Amino acid sequence: MRRRTKPPAAPLPQREGVDPVRVRLPEDRGGAWVTVGDHLRDRFGGAVGGARVAEMLRGGRFVGVDGVVTGEEPYTAGMYLWFHRDFPPEERVPFEIGVVYRDERIVVVDKPHFLATMPRGRHVTETVLARLRRELGLPDVQPAHRLDRLTAGLVLCVVRPEDRGAYQNLFRDRLVRKEYEAVAPYDPAVALPVTVRSRIVKERGVMAAREMPGEPNSESRIELVEHRGGLGRYRLLPTTGQTHQLRVHMNALGLPIQNDPVYPVVREDGPEDFGRPLRLLARRLEFTDPVTGAGMRFESRQRLSGLGHAAEPHI
Q1: Can you tell me the distance from the alpha carbon of 258 to that of 184, in angstroms, rounded to the nearest whole number?
Q2: What domains appear along the chain, each with residue ranges and CATH number?
Q3: Which residues contact 104 (CB under 8 A, 6 or more apart)?
Q4: What digits encode the pLDDT tens for the residues 31-63?
């Protein structure tokens, strides 16, 4: 078996808390690329245009282990390159990230509504990852799991790369007890508590996930905590972690979470309304620390302070 060698360290620093993109040049069995520039124009020209790739080359934006790459270098399979993408313009999410717990291995944070966990699409610098790296001075910090951009609450982050796998495996192996809270319509005809099991499918490029016939791949327990004025406060206990799982299951019960822009109806894309957050909060995380063996339990400092009120950001 051929051993995979570890890529060299990036010669470019982070920019605004975001790592440079790493590219490894593939085998060119057809002999399509004479120079490195030929490959880069083919590879990225469709996304940003060949003229933009050429401009980036002229500006020294592509860097290899030996320095700036001009694009005239002979094509060499296996060569590593790094560059920073052009960041999209982003409106700052006007809420701060609260730090619930921090030691030399982990940071548990209170993510506000509207802030993405990881860079993706048009959300790059306005993410938990980028903000924590900038604000806490932790260049290697990485979230161990994802929380929907519109959902507020607890996110476990890992400080050191060598510890990352151990904490990520907790979520992969379903060894973390997660408790959420939601505000949604109250319907006395819906018998609660209930455990919902279904097959959820999320197609790339489609906003809403959907339930389909077949072997269930998701499970959530739904409990009613209180109700008043036609609204209910619910405790949500997911066993699995499918995309939008709790939102899909609440909607399937006829209890769509308040201010959900996707379920039951996808709203048209437009400016963020920071005054109307999704009424969903990741309230608690419990697990056995894979490094120390200690029992860990964390609770969000945010509150769905009353039926019909938004989670209060931790300042």
Answers
A1: 5
A2: 21-83 (3.10.290), 98-299 (3.30.2350.10)
A3: 159, 160
A4: 999 999 999 999 998 878 889 999 999 999 999
